[in-house]
Design goal:
The protein is an alpha/beta fold. The chain is built from 13 helices and eight strands. Helix 12 links the parallel strand 7 and strand 8.
Length: about 240
């Protein structure tokens, strides 16, 4: 199976190891992984900031970069959710409308693709310790992902998954929300981290590095003993 991967701009710049780990897992699953080095951003930051025309230009490039792809897989439910749910708004009644629908149907978040498309939930991964899982807003509400990451994590040898209180509550990042409403954003991060720590977990895992970046900053600022991990980094561990 040929799979094209989309690496979000912030993952490319700040967390490239997660992208490599995603490739590692996909290849173990038997996928022929292709990376188009001309890819850039999905267009979400500009869209969320209100710059729809500028966003549309970036989105048009995404459509061009992934034209003809059988499957597009990304380590970010946020980007996947944007492509699935908002490209149609930008390209409504345009010549790209049908192409947008096709692209949306082919675009998957990493854990969702492994479980729903490939039908694989065991990779021989190992990680000792207790962990708790954070449902990102994009993963839960825009991509309808809930059980897939938990199934994958339940098969990681040595890992005990503990559910935190208010697990479906936002972490407070929300892109530019964390900049515009810093005090609220920090308070939400405090609540999320407090609930994670209350489980006794050593690891805080999610499908979205945007959430984890926000939470990790708060954790490090407070000096807490809690490590954030993307699910790709967990599944690529121990083999």
């Amino acid at each position: 199976m040929r799979v094209d991967i989309f690496i979000p701009c912030f993952v490319d710049q700040l967390y490239p190891e997660t992208a490599f780990n995603m490739v590692k897992v996909l290849e173990k699953a038997g996928c022929d992984v292709n990376y188009n080095k001309d890819q850039t951003c999905c267009g979400q930051p500009a869209f969320n900031a209100g710059f729809w025309e500028e966003s549309k230009a970036v989105c048009s490039k995404f459509l061009k970069d992934f034209k003809g792809a059988d499957y597009i897989v990304a380590p970010s439910a946020s980007c996947v959710g944007f492509v699935r749910n908002y490209y149609s708004k930008l390209f409504d009644n345009s010549s790209d409308h049908n192409n947008v629908i096709k692209i949306a149907d082919k675009t998957f978040e990493f854990s969702e693709f492994l479980v729903k498309v490939l039908g694989i939930d065991k990779f021989g991964a190992k990680l000792e310790g207790k962990a708790t899982y954070h449902d990102s807003c994009a993963g839960l509400r825009e991509c309808k992902i809930k059980e897939e990451p938990r199934r994958l994590l339940s098969n990681v040898k040595g890992l005990e998954i503990l559910e935190m209180e208010d697990v479906e509550t936002c972490c407070g990042f929300g892109g530019t929300f964390s900049v515009k409403f810093e005090a609220i954003s920090v308070a939400m991060a405090d609540q999320k981290v407090s609930h994670a720590l209350a489980t006794g977990a050593k690891y805080l895992i999610s499908t979205d590095l945007s959430c984890l970046m926000h939470l990790d900053g708060y954790i490090k600022n407070k000096g807490y003993n809690l490590q954030t991990l993307h699910i790709a980094d967990v599944l690529a561990n121990g083999w």
